[in-house]
Amino acid sequence: MTETVGSPAGAAGEPEAGAREGIRVQRVYTTEGVHPYDEVKWERRDVVMTNWRDGSVNFEQRGVEFPDFWSLNAVNIVTSKYFRGAVGTDERESSLRQLIDRVVKTYVAAGVEHGYFATDADAEIFEHELTWMLMHQVFSFNSPVWFNVGTSSRQQVSACFILSVDDTMESILDWYKEEGLIFKGGSGAGLNLSRIRSSRELLSSGGTASGPVSFMRGADASAGTIKSGGATRRAAKMVVLDVDHPDIEEFIETKAREEHKIRALRDAGFDMDLGGADSNSVQYQNANNSVRVSDEFMRAVESDGKFGLRARMTGEVLESVQARDLFRKMAHAAWECADPGIQYDDTINDWHTSPETGRITASNPCSEYMHLDNSSCNLASLNLMKFLRDDLTFDAELFEKAVEFVITAMDISISFADFPTESIGITTRKFRQLGIGYANLGALLMATGHAYDSDGGRALAAAITSLMTGTAYKRSAELAGVVGPYEGYARNAEAHQRVMRKHAAANDLVRTYHRNDATVHKLATKVWQDGLEIGARNGWRNAQASVLAPTGTIGLMMDCDTTGIEPDLALVKFKKLVGGGSMQIVNQTVPRALQALGYQDEQIEAVVEYIAEHGHVVDAPGLRPEHYEVFDCAMGERSIAPMGHVRMMAAVQPFISGAISKTVNMPEAATVEEVEQLYFEGWKLGLKALAIYRDNCKVGQPLSAGKGGKAEKEKEVEKQIEYRPVRKRLPKKRPSQTVSFTVGGAEGYLHAGSYPDDGLGEIFVKLGKQGSTLAGVMDAFSMSISVGLQYGIPLEFYVSKFQNLRFEPAGMTDDPDVRMASSVLDYLFRRLALDYLPYEKRAQLGIFTVDEREAQVNGTEVAPAEQPSEVHLDTLRSTVDYSKAEKSEDAPRAGSSTELLELRLGKAADAPLCMTCGTKMRPSGSCYLCEGCGSTSGCS
User: What do you get for the CA distance between the two ends of the chain, in Å?
Assistant: First the structure.
């Protein structure tokens, strides 16, 4: 732990003359005379990362050194993402020691230089404590720290940025440039476009302004071009518009209209999947959009009143609209395509510590950082499971000490950090915004026997969050007495103190239910009281202290089961094994939760075995139904209701300086009215921002296959007459058809033979010259598919595997139903699906004829052509032992926890494939995270 030395600072934040500055540091984790590296066992490992889809090697570095308790996944991600230097050279880092030393020694040297420590011994202890915590995965800095600190690169430590743009062409062009520089460094940025005059207002030259939405096109194209983010991540951006802007309806419907375009292009045969070859033709897809609503607007929605849209230059009301109608359009657009999200302006600014300097108008892309324009936020997150004792109580005292270490290091980083623009650097150094947060909350709640959507779970989460932010601000006040408050504090002192009192008052309102949350809350109350007293004397070193970020890549680095504030994704997860391969395991928090609930070892073992087999706890042997809710997850048999997520956000929001990165997932059957209710309740409950995602609302995601197929398979198993597949050969004389085709200039022929009852039984493909290698391979391929069909493998299985397969030749075809093909196989199996699968199955696969697509676009009832019967296929399927087939080596394999969950649920999850390694990503806050390589789709 640490304590300040020296007299309190004066009003200007300067220590009294003759007072010795610096903080004293006491050991918490380390032992005097023993270096942290000497306390653990180290081992060498080989890191070879492959693309899940094609097996190609994405990254390889052998002989890297890590502690033996680090998981394979954490080792892979840190080696591939954070080690610096060219692979294969002497300059390349090869040990976790080198990585931690590079960062920690830079922090400690800056702390010494800027007077943070009382003595050199205190600096050394601080170095050892940080080293121990990082090595043991107690916390992690955000990714830019690992990328940049201690290297020859610019020392950029911040992941989140807010920009500004004014109503001038120079400012708009500066926006494009500054955003591009931030994207180039792999970070994200957000801004509010409401200062730009609307398309209903005149220019000084006499013409009509084009409006902010038009300028969004150029910025969107720029983000799409720089989306790789160098070697780190894709670009992420947020665009905000105030609800009283005259162009608000156009802004709301922007992405929904593009979604209609995506559907039409996809149905015309274009590749519109996320990252697809033709997806770049669609606009506005590289940003999250949010509407900034005021209390005045929300009250008008509540009373069904009118609301005025105001000119940007004069403030006059250009049009009065029905507030509920506008609110309904927001909800409908979000229901349709997940955008726009909503930000509650008056709530945000009511908790603003620096209002005299300027209002908070925007956020970073994930919506957790909200402060002044042209500013940045440095993030770090603690692993909450590291504070859970063996007796399943939360170690509040240890957590407090860890927060003190982390927030001190975070503040030191601003002293040496570089920034992408001069204005961002000036604002950040003046206000020193920090974003301490945590990960693994969902795992902690389950391990302690709390349901995520429960009063007890919310009380524990609120108490922990309050203790974290209270400790961070207390340490900030102590640092202000050593090195002075932030430069903008004097002007904003009254407002800052008012917000601190609001946090403390909210803490007093927390109701506790269990010794865990009661103990944490008691310490949090004391910390807030002490912090207010110290802050009244010294001021505070930081204008902002905490946020709840997605903790994507760093969450994997810390071997966290859950990210940020999220619950567990599912009870079973995918685990990679050293030496290759993978296995399905039951989350380790499940046995601890059963222990916390009072179950005996034999009962725990039986429940875990049941979960491993079924993927859920319903009807698990010996498990009481009242305990089912403890094991509810984000997805699965028992998924947490959308309002459960909102209530958890509301429980912790009063104890967060910024906001919370989280998307509330809704089922596909959710209605527009339910979206309205969530957005309205978010305002009532005091949230700062809220975003929703309805399953399968976006075209660039996999289509749901539904859960009905599982019941049908169970019925089919009952009808089995043999316990092995039976081949049904085609008769000597059978109906057939031949289709000539052209794909990307390559000509060929497809011959398809059927059973007399119209079930497809064989194919032959003629491509290439007779006797050529290509012709031989296609003959062998055709024979393999034909035999599979005759053994009863459903055609739709082959179609799902081979459609969208990408290789040359590819391009335009001469088939009006399949205008574009990503390969010959992509074309062939789309054509076979059109000829031999019923409409319902093709709809699930997204394959339609020209007439069917036209009917959909026109909004008329789809009337598909007569389809062949499936009597023969059903007969063949009844001879297959599905219970054994699902466990065979030929069964579908999972490459991530999301894909494993898909196999369990019998439906596709709405998650994109990783653009680096091809693994299906999983949700992480309002972004997506790849468990395979650590890539994220956002800025965390």
Answer: 28
Establish if 52 belongs to a structural domain.
no
Rg, the chain, Cα only: 29
740 lies in some domain: yes
799 lies in a domain?
A: yes
Task: For 36-61, give the DSSP string.
Answer: GGGGS-EEEEEEEEE-TTT--EEEEE
Predicted pLDDT of residue 879: 30
pLDDT of res. 592: 93
CB atoms within 10 A of CB 166: 12
User: Per residue in 789-847, pLDDT tens?
Assistant: 888 888 988 988 888 787 888 888 888 888 888 889 989 998 998 988 888 888 878 88
In angstroms, the CA 228 to CA 235 distance is: 6
Q: Dig out the tokens for 279 from the structure.
A: 């997806």
Structure tokens at 498: 């008012």
pLDDT digits (tens, 9 = 90+) for 22-65: 999 999 999 999 999 999 999 999 999 887 666 778 889 999 99
Instruction: Please tell me the distance from the alpha carbon of residue 745 to that of residue 242, in angstroms, as a whole number.
Output: 51
Please state the separation of Cα 109 from the chain's center in Å: 34
**What is the rounded CA–CA span in Å between residue 100 and residue 79?**
12
In which domain, by residue range, is 731 found? 721-880
Q: Tally Cβ neighbours within 10 Å of residue 670.
A: 18
Q: Which two tokens stand for residue 640?
A: 């947490």
Contact of 627 with 590, CB cutoff 8 Å: no
Q: How many domains does the chain have?
A: 2
Which of 291, 316, 350 marks a domain boundary? 350
The last residue of one of the domains, among 312, 327, 350, is: 350
CA angle, residues 654, 657, 658, in degrees to nearest 5 = 105
Report the distance separating Cα 704 and Cα 706, nearest Å. Answer: 5
**Cα–Cα distance measured from residue 227 to residue 939, given in angstroms and rounded to the nearest whole number:** 12
* List of residues 6+ apart from 642 with CB closer than 8 A: 664, 665, 666, 670, 674, 678, 692
Could you tell me the CA-to-CA distances from 119 to 15, 27, 113 in Å, in that order? 17, 14, 12
pLDDT tens track for 876-897: 223 333 233 334 344 456 777 7
Kindly list the catalytic residues: 364, 366, 368
Per-residue pLDDT band for 527 (boundaries 50, 70, 90) equals: very high
Q: Is residue 574 pLDDT above 50, yes or no?
A: yes
Which pair of tokens denotes residue 416? 């040496």
Residue 190 pLDDT > 70: yes
Of 506, 505, 532, 510, nearest in space to 463 by CA = 510
**Helix, coil or strand: residue 810:** coil
Alpha helices in 685-808 (DSSP H): 708-718, 773-790, 795-802
